[in-house]
Amino acid sequence: MKLVLPTSEEKVQKDILLSEDEKELNAFLNDRIKHLKLSRKKVLGYLDVDKLMEKADEDTRIRDFLNDTDGKGKKFLFEDELAGWRGTSTFVDLSKENWQANIASNEPFIKMMVALSILFDNDPKYKLSAGGVKFQAITEVIRQLLDNSWKVQMSREQLKAFIFDLAKYPFAVGRTFIKQEIRTINEIVEYDPLTKEAKEEEREVMDFAEVVRKRLDPRRTWLDDKAKANDRSSINDWCFEEDYSYEQLEREFGDTKHFKDIARGGSPAFEIDNDTGEERKPSVDTNTSGFTENYLVQIYENRHHDRLVARVRLQDGWVPLVNDPLPWDHKELSLWTAFWNIRNPNTLYGVSPVEIMRGDKVLKNQIKN
Q1: 231-254, pLDDT tens digit by residue?
Q2: Which DSSP state fits 62?
Q3: How are the residues of the chain apportioned to helix, strand and coil, as percentages rounded to the nearest 5?
Q4: 268 in helix, strand or coil?
Q5: Residues 63, 51: contact at Cβ < 8 Å?
Q6: pLDDT at 83 over 50
Q7: Which of 192, 223, 328, 329 is 20–30 Å from 287 (CA)?
Q8: What is the pTM of this model?
Q9: Helices and strands in the chain, H and E counts
Q10: Which run of H or E residues covers position 271?
Q11: What is the structure's pLDDT at 320?
């Protein structure tokens, strides 16, 4: 397989004819997902979860010179702590390499994350016990599958990232699913040492089906607005978004009906109006500088209607790629979510340690010291 840029013809998105069922599906998803996004801005009638997450990012941000100074030279007044002379300050140019530290070490947050990492790494095992003698054999099989997923699919690191989200945001979220990849690879079957020429052949390889536990970005995941704390049955549907490259899109959805009609070049840039939830084009198209292929994919699951839907954003709108029943025998959502401290029994958005520390200088000093 050669590495080549797509041709100009491959970048032209042609019209994709959707069936009436697909149009109705899009209409339902457009309305439902917009509702999920807007409802998170007024949880319990007053709580804007999106702003809470933005505030958490600000509270835990390490100051960056390029962001704080726009890469331009700026001078600030610093006291000479090394010399120990009180009242003696000099101007320091931050654009030079040897400027004094402009990084605020967010020690309470850093210490909390280090402590969580140590606790997590010191307790690597899980507990599995058979419900009876006849289940001992299958329990051991499940244990081996879990061990393999823990190592091969790095589910353990995903769980660690999930715990970090718990400490920072009002909630953390992930999903469990079966992953089996079929890839086309190239093998060298002949090689001439004189001419240095090699003959390659393509063949397909199928990976083992693995149980994957994946942490998702809470900022790009929207849960049922009727969901309650510690009540899984109250969550009927949910949605999340991810960015795919063309290769990832082909690997996961290459056998779907509409994939062959998807042009190269990625999804168009658009923004969501905070008040109405409607899409709008930004003043600057982020997909025009250089060759980028970021395709926006939405995954939606509905427990009551037993549906799993995946769709991709193209120039003229959303194109459904998958519309199937939930693929698991138990017919439950693949979602798993949790919070650190309960905020209200009627919502699953809790209170994180970062939010608790906000404005509490005494608590911050206790953690710092």
Answers
A1: 999 999 999 999 999 989 998 999
A2: P
A3: 30, 25, 45
A4: coil
A5: no
A6: no
A7: 223
A8: 0.77
A9: 9, 14
A10: strand 271-272
A11: 96
Q: Are 238 and 225 in contact (CB under 8 A)?
A: no
Which two three-digit tokens encode residue 331? Answer: 């017919």
For 350, phi and psi rounded to 5 degrees?
-95, -160
Tokens of 267: 């999804």
Residues 268, 9 contacting (CB under 8 angstroms): no
Residue listed under structure tokens 């003698």: 133
Long-range contacts of 193-202 (CB under 8 A, 24+ apart): 202/1
DSSP three-state, residue 237: strand
225, burial (CB in 10 Å: exposed 0-12, middle 13-18, buried 19+): middle
Identify which of 354, 363, 42 has the alpha carbon closest to the alpha carbon of residue 169.
Answer: 354
Mark 82-114 as b/e (b = at least 16 C-beta within 10 Å). Answer: eeeeeeeeeebebeeeebeeeeeebebbeebbe
The residues, any chain, with a CB within 8 Å of residue 110's CB and separated by 6 or more, are: none
Q: Within 10 A of 274 (CB to CB), how many other CB atoms are there?
A: 12
- The closest alpha carbon to 225, from 44, 71, 7, 16, belongs to 44
Q: Which of 311, 346, 307 is nearest to 44 (CA)?
A: 346
Give residue-wise pLDDT tens across range 10-25: 788 888 999 999 999 9
Structure tokens at 121: 């790494």
User: CB of 222 within 8 A of CB of 36?
Assistant: yes
Which residue is it, tokens 């505030």?
Answer: 55
Contact 358, 367 (CB under 8 A): no
Rounded CA separation 157/162 (Å):
9
Q: DSSP class of residue 339?
A: -
Q: What is the DSSP string of 133-181?
A: GGGHHHHHHHHHHHHHHHHHS-HHHHHHHHHHHHHHSS-EEEEEEEE--
